[in-house]
Design a protein that fits this description.
This protein is of the alpha/beta class. Helices cover 39% and strands 19% of the residues.
Length: 257
Amino acid sequence: MTRHLTVSGTRLAYRTVGDGPGLVLLHGTGPGSSTWDGVAERFADRNTVILPDLGGSDLVEDDGAPLTVEGLTEQLAAVIEDSSKAPVDLLGFSLGAVIALSLAATRPDLVRRLIPVGGWAHTEDAYLRTALQTWLGLAGTPDAFARFAMLTGFSRRYLNSLDAEDLESRATYFRPHPNRLRQIDLGRRVDLRRLLPGIQAPTLVVGAARDGLIPVENSRELHAAIPGSSYLELDTGHVSSVERPDDFVALVRDFTA
């Protein structure tokens, strides 16, 4: 089922699968909730899985202005309230982890448990800042933009496991759509450090040991900053749900059981 709502002039969408307590899977930089296809269904036996498409995703209609953490947080809150499933278990990946952390800190009434995956608190990390700037700088060369996304999104081990056709598919998936550039630009401006100590929900921070885009030290820093949080590290590149889907699903199910 797909629903639409308008939040501060932005028309956004979310869809649901399954039935039970609410579990939100929040996309990162990319086209939107379709990034969870093949994963979301694996939680539908015991959860209502809520799949938002927030500002910067391809199903959203807005004015094209720069994205903000505050604006996307407001959109996420509106989706959860409209779903009538609050409080929810909230998993955010990459930029989605940033927004999930922001919501947990500012709207604790909406979040039962929190799982930030591949997230970060700020961009004072020179590696991270340089990676995002380089990615933006490749926007004029679509092939290089897409291949940079592949190289930083997946581990060397995973890429070497693909056949030539799958490798080429990965290499051309990400195109420099204006919405991708807005999402990456927001990533460069993140600073959540003042919010993290206020997170009250039980939290499992998930890092990726081979992450070439958001170095795993950023996840470890989140864990250190969130009171009482737990930490788990997967031996994958940035997109752990693709590289190790069974392990990814198992850790989410265990934590939200």
